[in-house]
Amino acid sequence: AKAHQRSSHSYFTVDMGVEIRERVRMMHALRAAFENERLFVVYQPQIDMRTQSPVGAEALLRWKNEEGQFVPPDQFIPIAEYSGLIVDIGEWVLRSACFELIHLHNLGFTDFKMAVNVSQAQFSHPLFLQSLERALTDTRAPANCLELEITESMAMNDPEMLIKTLHHIKQLGVQISIDDFGTGFSSLSHLQKLNVDKLKIDRAFVNEINDKSGEGSIAKMIVQLSQSLNIKVIAEGVETKLQADTLMGFGCHLAQGYLYARPKTQLDLRAWLAQGPDH
Ligand code: C2E
Ligand code: CA
Ligand code: CA
Ligand code: CA
Q1: ipTM over 0.90
Q2: pTM of the predicted model, to two decimals?
Q3: Which residues belong to any copy of the EAL domain (predicted)?
């Protein structure tokens, strides 16, 4: 029994050691990339499906490592969150997105909206509101064209803090949307109290809309919920015409997905917008 114990103990130690070392390595590499300005932001257009015209974009972070490979955000964002790096990186993404927003407005796309992802650690940081206000005043981006995407789980961790912070954000005129809606089990009474502007249907529920079976009953339910709460709704990960038509049938008119556009560098986005939606 003793031998067995020792071997299982060393097994876990080795395994965890490797994982922790890998995480620490990635954290150092990420910090270096941030400091050496090797992170960048891409923008995925959001579309009004009825007119096929772009109405805004979501800012998404990209990291190309020393070997020239893209590290997926799903891998490095958790490390940025865990290490606290997300506070500085997130502020930089927010400022970059605000600068791009005002640039697009100056090019004549005056109603264009910009959505930015905000992590829990960023949101609950005591200086978050200050950095948000500073981003708006420094860039002169209009607050009502900026939208912050938060997740449902943030509503569950500390509802009091969240409600207070959201109140300040709304006073600035900045919009709030709930990202990946439906994946986080937040209560409906919560949702009403939070007074958000938009729900974002997670890609997983859009994916269920296909020829084989699923009529997208969860997506439909979220659209109906948004209608009864009188808030906006957008679907992410729309890849097929069937999905677009089905969502429009439900009453969801906003979409983001490969059917319309992949995330684009800032120069590609400007060129794409200048060409118009039919090109
Ligand atoms: P998310 O916020 O749910 O972002 C949507 C993800 O779906 C993006 O992946 C986008 O490229 C992808 N996507 C959009 N349309 C389609 C489609 O039609 N098909 C498929 N298969 N995928 C589609 P990405 O850029 O890899 O980002 C992954 C996640 O990383 C994001 O999920 C978000 O949670 C996080 N993230 C990205 N940038 C930031 C950031 O600046 N700050 C924070 N806190 N998180 C970020
Ligand atoms: Ca998002
Ligand atoms: Ca999302
Ligand atoms: Ca998602």
Answers
A1: yes
A2: 0.93
A3: 23-277
